[in-house]
Design the sequence.
């Protein structure tokens, strides 16, 4: 067991781009530091970013804000996955329902997720549940649409087999339908992740609900350029980690459950 | 008139009916007082709102501003992305020495650039363009790079046998091979560009449709908020249809892959 996990991890590491590919980034940051070693209203030196970040941790409770942002993101994405899968499967089970709802769902998806923020602010007001609602609504559509189209593309023979084995509806769902749509769900989630991050930060920026977005806007309004860059790096790292973690999860799931043709 | 018949048969009538019935229910429930949401306007009020902002010219002015940002930002992202993607696709060494940097920068949430852009450019068009271009670049760059890097080495051998010049190799081998990747990337970028333009207008430059939604929300005009949301959705649908339509006409071979990439 441990050995298999180890081998799997090694193949994942081998697939990573070479570390020497980081060279341009390192050269850029070093040159930046050398050309501009002090504070600046526009391009503060990278060393200043670090000083600003340390100050932010002390002064603005950076850790708590970061926690709030990450929590909203995870809760929103989790709810979107649950609701999107459930609705997607329900809609996909009936050809007629899928066709009737398709134009409406396509239009909902075409609306850029950020505009849900002012709408939710009107209808729900500024509070934690509004923050969550907006994130769920943004991440929902790609997951829902992928789930419903995947259910419709399940080989009818597979469903016939389930029927001849007299599987109950619940068994059909857990043993046939859900496993068949996993690859499509993963693609939907991959599209939903950046949307969820962007909208989480946006809602914090627009409403000053506690979170990294609110601190980013505050730093910018106070012209604390060091803080602004420090937060850019922090959010960038967050995006990077989420992206890679998901790729890892995706790799493990798809390897144990290869897509059926 | 067989064409009209075919067209009528192709229209998704149940889908159309769902939307109409949905709007009717929404309107009736609100009128009858069965659903009570403070600030939720009935569809008729939204339609009136659309008429109002069309008449006073605000819709057109705001839409044109956002459209300009999206198109300039998208075009810039495509040009830079294709150029960089071609170079990195051709040179395995350069790719080796930059791929990890790209993989670190690419997942950066676009909105994170908004405060930096505000710091550098203030409330301006440049600010919006920075927020649009930086994230919209990656899909084009990565797809172009992948397509060019995937060209079979033998094709280049063939080119060498025919003594093609560098420019001819680019035009006859690399560009055709990269085309589907470029188009797929361009479509993904277009969607991103609209989202980011709206974001930039909401938190930064007070102009365009994004700002209009926030402005009307603060003015407590729910009818106009929803009217602008409808307008933004319509712009998204129209941009997408224009792009896939243009691809279908100009590059029919790649159209299928582009339509699927969304």
Sequence:
């Amino acid at each position: 067991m441990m050995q298999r996990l180890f081998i799997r991890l090694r193949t994942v590491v081998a697939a990573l781009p070479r570390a020497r590919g980081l060279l341009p980034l390192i050269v850029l940051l070093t040159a930046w530091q050398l050309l501009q070693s002090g504070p600046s209203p526009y391009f503060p030196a990278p060393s200043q970013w670090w000083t600003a970040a340390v100050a932010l941790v002390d002064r603005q409770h950076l850790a708590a804000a970061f926690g709030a942002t990450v929590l909203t993101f995870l809760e929103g994405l989790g709810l979107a996955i649950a609701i999107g899968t459930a609705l997607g499967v329900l809609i996909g089970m009936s050809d007629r329902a899928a066709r009737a709802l398709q134009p409406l769902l396509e239009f909902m998806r075409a609306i850029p997720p950020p505009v849900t923020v002012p709408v939710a602010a009107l209808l729900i007001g500024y509070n934690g549940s509004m923050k969550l609602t907006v994130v769920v609504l943004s991440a929902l559509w790609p997951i829902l649409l992928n789930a419903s189209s995947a259910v419709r593309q399940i080989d009818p023979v597979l469903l016939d087999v389930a029927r001849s084995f007299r599987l109950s509806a619940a068994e059909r769902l857990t043993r046939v339908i859900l496993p068949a749509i996993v690859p499509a769900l993963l693609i939907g989630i991959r599209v939903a992740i950046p949307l969820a991050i962007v909208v989480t930060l946006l809602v914090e920026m627009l409403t000053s609900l506690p979170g990294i977005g609110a601190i980013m806007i505050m730093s910018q309004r106070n012209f604390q350029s060091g803080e602004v860059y420090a937060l850019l790096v922090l959010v960038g790292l967050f995006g990077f980690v989420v992206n890679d973690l998901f790729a890892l999860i995706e790799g493990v799931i798809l390897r144990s459950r290869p897509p059926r043709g | 008139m067989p064409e009209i018949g075919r067209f009528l048969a192709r229209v998704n009538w149940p889908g159309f009916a769902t939307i109409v019935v949905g709007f009717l229910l929404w309107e009736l429930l609100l009128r009858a007082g069965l659903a009570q949401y403070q600030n939720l306007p009935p569809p008729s009020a939204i339609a009136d709102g659309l008429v109002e902002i069309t008449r006073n010219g605000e819709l057109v002015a705001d839409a044109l501003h956002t459209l300009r940002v999206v198109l300039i930002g998208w075009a810039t992202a495509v040009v830079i992305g294709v150029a960089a993607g071609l170079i990195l696709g051709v040179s395995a060494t350069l790719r080796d020495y930059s791929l990890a940097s790209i993989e670190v920068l690419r997942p950066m949430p676009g909105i994170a650039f908004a405060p930096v852009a505000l710091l550098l450019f203030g409330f301006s068009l440049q600010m919006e363009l920075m927020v649009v271009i930086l994230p919209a670049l990656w899909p084009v760059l990565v797809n172009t790079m992948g397509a060019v890097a995937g060209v079979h080495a033998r094709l280049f051998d063939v080119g060498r046998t025919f003594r093609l010049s560098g420019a001819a190799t680019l035009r006859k081998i690399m560009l055709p091979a990269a085309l589907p990747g470029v188009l797929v990337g361009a479509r993904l970028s277009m969607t991103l560009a609209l989202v980011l333009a709206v974001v930039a207008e909401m938190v930064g430059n007070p102009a365009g449709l994004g700002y209009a939604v926030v402005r009307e929300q603060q003015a407590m005009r729910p009818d106009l908020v929803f009217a602008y949301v409808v307008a933004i959705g319509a712009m998204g649908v129209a941009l997408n249809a224009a792009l896939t339509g243009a691809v279908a006409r100009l590059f029919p071979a790649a159209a299928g892959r582009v339509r699927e990439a969304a």
